[in-house]
Design goal:
Elements lengths: L17 E9 L2 E6 L3 E5 L12 E6 L2 E6 L1 H6 L9 E5 L30 E5 L4 E6 L3 E2 L14 E5 L7 E4 L1 H8 L2
Parallel strand pairs: 2-11
Antiparallel strand pairs: 1-2, 1-8, 3-6, 4-5, 6-7, 9-10, 10-11
Length: about 180
């Protein structure tokens, strides 16, 4: 509904800036990635090699790409669980739309070690959901929480409601941490 000023001129509504995210849950904790980094969500995939401290390999579009088990890396789980989906991401922003995860991506070779991979895969137990979150619901991570090896992987906190908290992941930092 459009609000009218005194003389019948429509009053412009202020738009709240939002970010589109892909959200998923791992062992009761909620995580999110920017949708601009998501290329596709796979339902069926085969992991090659053993999970070496949260790492494995999968085939995607004829390429062998690294698979990163966040449950092992972030939650200190000692062995991988059964996953039914895998989020295929790129360290660079894609031109994906919400309705089509499989649109082509732009890939530029860069010198940064975190961008050596065109794709990475993150296995998840359930189908992720798309969120459109107002930027006002993002907050900084307390410094005391950033302690330890993977503290910089969590870039922001997201408060979509009074009772919910999502961890906004930084893919570049994640890649830097697993290369060590």
């Amino acid at each position: 509904m459009t609000h009218l000023h005194r003389f019948g001129v429509p009053k412009a509504r202020q738009r709240t800036p939002t970010q589109k995210l892909i959200a998923f849950e791992l062992e009761g904790e909620c995580y999110a990635l920017p949708i601009a980094r998501v290329v596709r969500v796979l339902h069926e995939f085969k992991v090659y090699g053993t999970f070496n401290r949260g790492r494995g390999l999968i085939k995607y579009q004829g390429e062998t790409i690294p698979l990163i088990d966040l449950g092992v890396l972030l939650l200190d789980r000692d062995r991988p669980q059964v996953y039914h989906y895998s989020i295929i991401c790129t360290p660079e922003e894609t031109q994906c739309s919400v309705t089509n995860f499989s649109e082509s991506i732009r890939h530029n070779k860069k010198e940064d070690a975190s961008e050596r991979f065109q794709y990475i895969a993150i296995p998840i137990p359930e189908l992720p959901r798309v969120l459109d979150v107002p930027e006002s619901q993002f907050s900084d991570v307390p410094d005391s929480y950033r302690q330890g090896n993977l503290g910089s992987v969590i870039e922001k906190l997201i408060h979509p409601s009074e009772d919910d908290l999502f961890f906004y992941l930084n893919l570049e930092q994640l890649l830097k941490r697993i290369e060590v």
